[in-house]
Amino acid sequence: MNSHTHEMKAYGDIALFPGTASPELAGKIAKYLNKRLCDRDVILFPNDNLFIKLHESVRGKDVYVIQTTSRPVQQNLMELLISLQTLRLDSAARITAVVPYLCYSRSDKKDQPRVPITSRLVTDMIEVAGADRYMTLDPHAGQVQGFFSIPGDVLTAYHTIVEYIKENLLDNLTDPVVMAVDLGFAKKARNYAEALNTPIAFVEKRRVGNDSKAEALTVIGDIKGRDVIIVDDEVDTGGSISQAIKLAREEGARNVYLAFIHPVFSSNAATRLASLDLTEIITTDTVPIPEASLALFGDRIHICSVAPLLSEVIIRAHEGRSVGELFDE
Amino acid sequence: MNSHTHEMKAYGDIALFPGTASPELAGKIAKYLNKRLCDRDVILFPNDNLFIKLHESVRGKDVYVIQTTSRPVQQNLMELLISLQTLRLDSAARITAVVPYLCYSRSDKKDQPRVPITSRLVTDMIEVAGADRYMTLDPHAGQVQGFFSIPGDVLTAYHTIVEYIKENLLDNLTDPVVMAVDLGFAKKARNYAEALNTPIAFVEKRRVGNDSKAEALTVIGDIKGRDVIIVDDEVDTGGSISQAIKLAREEGARNVYLAFIHPVFSSNAATRLASLDLTEIITTDTVPIPEASLALFGDRIHICSVAPLLSEVIIRAHEGRSVGELFDE
Amino acid sequence: MNSHTHEMKAYGDIALFPGTASPELAGKIAKYLNKRLCDRDVILFPNDNLFIKLHESVRGKDVYVIQTTSRPVQQNLMELLISLQTLRLDSAARITAVVPYLCYSRSDKKDQPRVPITSRLVTDMIEVAGADRYMTLDPHAGQVQGFFSIPGDVLTAYHTIVEYIKENLLDNLTDPVVMAVDLGFAKKARNYAEALNTPIAFVEKRRVGNDSKAEALTVIGDIKGRDVIIVDDEVDTGGSISQAIKLAREEGARNVYLAFIHPVFSSNAATRLASLDLTEIITTDTVPIPEASLALFGDRIHICSVAPLLSEVIIRAHEGRSVGELFDE
Amino acid sequence: MNSHTHEMKAYGDIALFPGTASPELAGKIAKYLNKRLCDRDVILFPNDNLFIKLHESVRGKDVYVIQTTSRPVQQNLMELLISLQTLRLDSAARITAVVPYLCYSRSDKKDQPRVPITSRLVTDMIEVAGADRYMTLDPHAGQVQGFFSIPGDVLTAYHTIVEYIKENLLDNLTDPVVMAVDLGFAKKARNYAEALNTPIAFVEKRRVGNDSKAEALTVIGDIKGRDVIIVDDEVDTGGSISQAIKLAREEGARNVYLAFIHPVFSSNAATRLASLDLTEIITTDTVPIPEASLALFGDRIHICSVAPLLSEVIIRAHEGRSVGELFDE
Amino acid sequence: MNSHTHEMKAYGDIALFPGTASPELAGKIAKYLNKRLCDRDVILFPNDNLFIKLHESVRGKDVYVIQTTSRPVQQNLMELLISLQTLRLDSAARITAVVPYLCYSRSDKKDQPRVPITSRLVTDMIEVAGADRYMTLDPHAGQVQGFFSIPGDVLTAYHTIVEYIKENLLDNLTDPVVMAVDLGFAKKARNYAEALNTPIAFVEKRRVGNDSKAEALTVIGDIKGRDVIIVDDEVDTGGSISQAIKLAREEGARNVYLAFIHPVFSSNAATRLASLDLTEIITTDTVPIPEASLALFGDRIHICSVAPLLSEVIIRAHEGRSVGELFDE
Amino acid sequence: MNSHTHEMKAYGDIALFPGTASPELAGKIAKYLNKRLCDRDVILFPNDNLFIKLHESVRGKDVYVIQTTSRPVQQNLMELLISLQTLRLDSAARITAVVPYLCYSRSDKKDQPRVPITSRLVTDMIEVAGADRYMTLDPHAGQVQGFFSIPGDVLTAYHTIVEYIKENLLDNLTDPVVMAVDLGFAKKARNYAEALNTPIAFVEKRRVGNDSKAEALTVIGDIKGRDVIIVDDEVDTGGSISQAIKLAREEGARNVYLAFIHPVFSSNAATRLASLDLTEIITTDTVPIPEASLALFGDRIHICSVAPLLSEVIIRAHEGRSVGELFDE
Fold first, then answer.
1. Nearest to E109 among D112, D145, D190 (CB)
2. Of A104, A143, A202, A206, which to mutate for an interface test with F (greatest number of F Cβ within 10 Å)?
3. Do F184 and F268 have their domain in common?
């Protein structure tokens, strides 16, 4: 008894639908996959209404919407949702929301009464708009996978960054130590330390007295005379990072490196970071960094593109091949 | 056999939750109902993330979120949705989204292939965020009621505007005629004409030749020497209105009045309208008009507040009394 | 990197399941597609229970249920629903409800308090019974697309009718004018007028005095001495049409033609229409017209079949090709 | 610690909404509960479209729709569904579908391939239309409770019928025996026999040879010289009953009585039953029997009304009191 | 017009995922289908938490989870559910729960107030965990099909058992009679009797006096001097069977045979059955019988494997071929 | 305008439904609230089927099911689910699942490919069974709130334990330090340290070489000569705790205390813990500790009951009062 359906698929060819929030990343994915991007209009009317029109039918296609949800967050998110609905109404066979940086993923629990869990709202919205699957990278907590009712791929750029550090930096460092700027990142920092074979240190913040605003910072672990690699998942305003670097200096650190996944860079974060005594910044392109900001760093910044990773996962998802084996898992 | 449950309710007292998009309207409703507005924080963080925190519990309450969804559309909509989720997670007994102007209601059908029905997406989002009911005024088409799976009240400011015209303008007009600027508004214009006991006229637009951009305008019906009351449901950029007024002048109209529900006023609409030869503009406060724009009109604009109408419907919804009887229906 | 899944489908071959309400249309579609119709029993038991039994398995098939929902409306609708469930329980891979005339589509909004939106109920029922997709023609309002949560194709026979008029009638008409019998149809009538390059006219109805039953009719626009093409979406009892024709005659119209999509023909509509001074009636086969009724019109009626249109859309939906390109869109 | 919410309800007063299928039963329930019936229009338009309009608001009410689903089945069912939606859209607080005879309840499993489970379709439709709860009597199989996702009360008129027989007939019977006309009713027949303290007998049907149409009937159990009480859940066309009575006579039965819940009476069932040698028929008013049919039986029929039972359950459901205690359970 | 999609499928190859409850059956199916079983870990941690890990990706596969839900019921059920979710999250294209014995299927209606319908709860859980389809054999009542919202195949081992009896036993029996131990099984027993061309008998149980515990048993029908084939759907504790056999002996039965589908064998059922005067037991492997229990019966038990039946249905479901034709239906 | 509905509720009185997993805790809650527990049967039949029967109706009640989900996990969970369904089918007005220890909450993300997120499955099951709300304490990660679609109260016994330590232990400790046994608990440990005004230390585990089984443990932070308070959220087998205590001793700790929320105590955890050099263990009654285990600890264990906390939240939830104010939030 032999089935003759081997390797067949429930949908037609891949269609790559580029959102307007991360056009460069979409372009890199298209190039990697040797596909062209779908033609479409994305228009913001004077009344602030977004409008989308496909230039070609996606009926029966296996569509990947590539749209990150960095600033302007609400507009990028709404564009993602309208895209999903438009593609669903045009009878796409399967729609995957590829969202390199998933907005609101830090609003993932009620750590005080009477506040939202906006991350769950966002996953609900993505589903109601019509996504069949999703892909994202390094959400604040892995539990966001459990917010989705649809299956998806939660990926990480951790391996990409570790690989870069191992191949380009590690040999030149003196007594390196990995340092987390927040105890909530302690476990992930341990993974970096283990992979780079370094010890580990943490910055502990504690409120001072009854004044909930004043905080005392302490370094737990030994960083004196060492090259410090600060690791984190994102840099938002860069406030904690600045404090941590200053503290590291006070505690006798040698050179300081900074590695993180999502360059959110709110407010004047880029200017602030560029002014700090950092030897090198390693990050990714899950969030596009404006040219002007990039220029501030010169060659002190290295951007590891996630395009190869997303492309490999897209082609595996399309062909029904294992994604786990990408990571030797 | 006698039931002793007369006039009981499934929830506690009314709570009025004011969004940031229409604070004045919320204030008027609170005043009309002699209730105070809920205390809450609505914060837009530097990373463009919205955050909401209630200052008091709404557990078991009958909550009304008052938030219009005019510009900035995406932000006001997202604020509405996060508010709904926050209130739901805080165990409100019933939550009603009161949205005087419901965004994207013109994107209510696929009038060409491969476009969204964003209005349905918006109703889905409002439901998934946690609304039990909704209230809105004069959506582009009444069919939007059928987009919602939850019950709600689709109200109209039509009576309010007709009443104002009858009591304040009509006696002073010479041979008044109601004119629609678009054939899609013909039926509603007829209702105005019938209520005001005037004849009716329409502007017909037609494409010229094969050039889809060029349009020829014609007035169907008799407006010569008459006072013309142009009626519409909203003024967006004001382009069609401007054309219609110019055409009316060419066709020999006497004075021109303009009545519409939603002062969306995109782009430079206010400036454009203010420069036209309009005797009086009648509209409502479903969308707040900036002070600067208002100043352009001087006393040539009259705003009929929808606060009394919304307040009456809220109290009736809360007490389980008929809303229809408000309109002698 | 090259995907080898081009043009694959999520289901097996097409299966055409004919309901009992429109057997001729189903037959024409089968012939056009060169497919046979599924064998099945549809039995109405003495207790008024409908029963359906498939004679062959549809497991894995791409099934199209062809069933219009004209009179007897409730029975035809229930047959459609039971068919959908039967096919779903028999493990069809995809089921499309092809409903040329979608019943209750005029009950699409609450235009007075305390009434249903039966059209939304009908779409909910079609979904809960198991349809994955739907196709229909010319619903009363395009917004019904937003009532469905499933994707579908809302088609129009407008092009078919316009094409017929252009090729067979237009050259012989004297100063033709398109006339709508209701202001709610004004915009669609404009499309006909634009396509046929004619002016346009409307019948306006208005209540007289306080008596809500008495109506005054007026023609807006110029029809005197012209050949009048009355256009509408359906003819139900034919009451408004009769009034409009009589009025047209009074206003000096030359010959009168009547074009509409759905020949619902309730009550004695066929007899009434046949007795009117109409030169030609153009309609479609979305609703089957009984032989006896057809005979009343002799060669004064022309039926444009929608079978080619539906067939082309079915084959495109099955093969994942664009439907929009059928209309040069 | 003491809660002061004792005996409060989640809704306002009871509203009884009468469908058109069982007006007498609705009237009896209203009388029993000392309530008036809601005013409403139920109109069947010439195009076979049903339309419902409430004359008064039910906002916040605890509404009971009383509508049986006997012939015309599709129309009565659709009227029930439209009623439910209308009441939901009018913001009723809780809606209970009271369906004394639930149509299609015999289509409750696939006993052959490629057939529907229409009973599940019906329960899905009732839920999607907006019922919060349901009540019904003696469905073909109790498992239909599991088809509903909403809670409800599946009641039985069994006790009512047993009580009637015990008080009015049993003393006058000679060696009574309960007989089931179908083995599928054997277990329920045993309950009747146990309650009436009689032995039991069954009619067994078996196909003869390879001809699936020919059936041989046998009585299993002793009925010779005894008064036979045939019991069943419904009488449809009366075919099986007629065969069973004829067979009973051949086997030497004395007088024959017939007791069943639902007088469906399809086809010429009433005429057929009236012509049989039956001493008395006991049934209920879950399905209204036309006057003309009733007249055929004279005083040989007794109708046990289910109105008191339904009324008691309605008032208990409304007041949150136990329904089970009605049956000493 | 010719479609080139003939015989394509919506998924990749078959994957057989074996649960731990019925490994032998899974093995037989794999052998029949000439497929290997998926590698996976199923671990029960010391804290009683079940954990599952797939050793290979099932992305895009057509997966069949083979897991019966006999004792330990809760653990086997939970393992099934976790397996379904794991496979869904790993992006299987289609998942079928193959549950030879579906637990709780006797809890399928509320036959008294304030009890659960656990069978519906189980079907809800299977769906929420992620099954797209299901297969099961001989649930207590066929109506359980209506509990599922997903399509599936409810199969029966009835033909398998009848075939075995016809080919191996029937010729050697003396005046055989089929006997049901419960009136609720009367109709199914009739099918056995018809297929084996024997008469039929029933055991009737009736409560004695007011003591609800005491029961009187009677045989209805003639078994004296006959070989009796007792038929049932499952043997749980074996209590009713023991009583029935004892009664049969008292009533003069010759040899007694016992045929049933599910060998649930609770408590000391195996020991009890083995001690009874039974000539042969015929059952299936929907529930695995422990070696020690099997040994008690020696060659007095015959197990008809359902593996060929399930295998044939799996391959037909996978290839989109008719399952009904397996049964000449 | 004044609403007279102040403080009304959508349901009747509180009903406390005790599961069998935590009868003592249920008893304490009943006592605190001065309510009696509902009478019900919970039966485990020989075939391993659970059965529940309420002795009294809960129609219209506000029911709280108190059932923890410790070992036997699958049985306790299934009992919870069947209870929820039974109460829903009996028409309870609102049902809250009170689950002090929520099973599988550590399986909350896919930290490797091809594994389940069982915690989300559990929340789905609780919802599908019929819970309207839930309450639980200290799940492994707060994000589990986002797994639920229903609102609920995620509580913590952290304040209770901190309060106990402050009032009973802290004054007698020498240079106390809080220590986390896992970096994943670092942030919560910081909260304990801040509340108790102590420094903090962590145990870091790291894999040794390529052997994934061998782990090296290090203490980060200063514990020499100090009283160490080890904090964690649960003790399962006690393996990590044992290692940590041994390590603490090696590093020169003075006395060691152990505080944690959930005494899961799998395997021989109680025996193992009792044999360790621990001065005092502080835990709660979210999981009942068997008498025999308790006896092992003598007076070295202190159990802070969560009954007062749960009771206060239940009464607030019932009366629609703020729960947050319990914690001065």
1. D145
2. A143
3. yes
